[in-house]
Specification:
The chain is α/β, with parallel strands linked by helices. The protein has one domain. The chain is 52% helix and 8% strand. The protein has a four-stranded mixed β-sheet. It has a two-stranded antiparallel sheet with strand order 3-4. Bound molecules: zinc ion. The site of zinc ion has 6 residues, from helix 7 and helix 9.
């Protein structure tokens, strides 16, 4: 996709180089968490769920590198942290090629959605893009790269360890810049859902229902974020290269719940789906791409 260089006024926060580097998940954690565990947890429990998850990790896995002793959870080491925050956008976005791709896609999504909101008379608030490496801190608790990219509604941040882009290409066969753009656009879609109050409604419904119902709501929320990603791309259709849409479809296929489960455990458990099947993810990305209209992204009424 031939995107403009990022607008230097986008909100970027850089937590890299803070001595993170990860705290083991005991080996098994990474698989199947793509786009990942955190968005699912956020949407189902709000941040509370993340804190619970982190406490579980602290107890069972150890969160040692995150902070000196104490609870180990959300110890933010404020002085060290604030020194790094506010690093200027330009240097953070040009550290490497992956950062630049992320910033360009984020910046484009920012512009596109601001215009869509303006047209419909809704108030747009820009989110922030947060880079971290290995482990980081978010308004929803600790970030860990094995969780995959995620959006935290509490601080309106899209959190990205750019090593995920390598994983997307090498492990999941979803190569190309548009596959990466889709990741950013999907997370940006969660921000749109947050602004429109959709995520809050879903979280409420999830709290009051069974786990299986909660998962079904999560799937609808995730598919809508895929559709919103397609809407963004459609609104920038003149910038698409031949092959971009195929790259997006390959990525959407690779991160479908059924495909991931088949790879990880050799079988598929539909009740446990949180993001939708490969076919559903492709379908909703395509719906956004075909229409360019967020109103067509109603994944909540009717069949998906
Ligand atoms: Zn998501």
């Amino acid at each position: 996709m031939r995107l403009d260089d990022f607008d230097p006024n986008i909100n970027v926060e850089d937590q890299r180089g803070q001595g993170g580097g990860g705290f083991g998940f005991g080996g098994g954690g990474g698989g199947g968490l793509l786009f990942g565990l955190l968005p699912m947890v956020f949407s189902r429990f709000g941040c509370g769920g993340v804190v619970i998850l982190l406490i579980a990790l602290a107890v069972f896995g150890g969160l040692g590198s995150l902070g000196g002793g104490g609870s180990g959870v959300r110890t933010s080491a404020p002085s060290e942290q604030s020194a790094r925050h506010g690093t200027d956008t330009k240097s953070s976005c040009t550290i490497d090629a992956a950062s630049k791709v992320a910033c360009n896609a984020f910046s484009s999504a920012d512009k596109t959605w601001a215009a869509i909101f303006q047209q419909s008379g809704e108030r747009f608030v820009a989110p922030k893009l947060v880079f971290y490496s290995g482990s980081g801190q978010s308004g929803c608790g600790a970030a860990q790269s094995a969780m995959g990219p995620f959006y935290c509604p509490q601080d309106q941040g899209v959190y990205l360890d750019t090593s995920f882009f390598d994983e997307l290409g090498n492990r999941f066969g979803a190569k190309g810049d548009f596959a990466q753009d889709y990741v950013i656009a999907h997370e940006f879609g969660h921000h749109i859902q947050n602004l429109l109050g959709t995520s809050a409604k879903v979280a409420q419904a999830e709290r009051s229902g069974s786990e299986a119902e909660g998962n079904r709501m999560s799937v609808r929320l995730e598919l809508q974020a895929d559709c919103y990603a397609g809407v963004w791309a459609a609104q920038n259709r003149d910038r698409l290269d031949p092959g971009d849409i195929q790259e997006g479809m390959t990525a959407a296929y690779a991160i479908g719940d059924d495909t991931l489960q088949k790879q990880a455990q050799g079988r598929v458990v539909p009740d446990s789906f949180t993001h939708g099947t490969s076919a559903q993810r492709q379908h909703w990305l395509q719906t956004g791409l075909d229409s360019g209209d967020p109103a067509r992204c109603d994944t909540f009424s009717g069949a998906i």
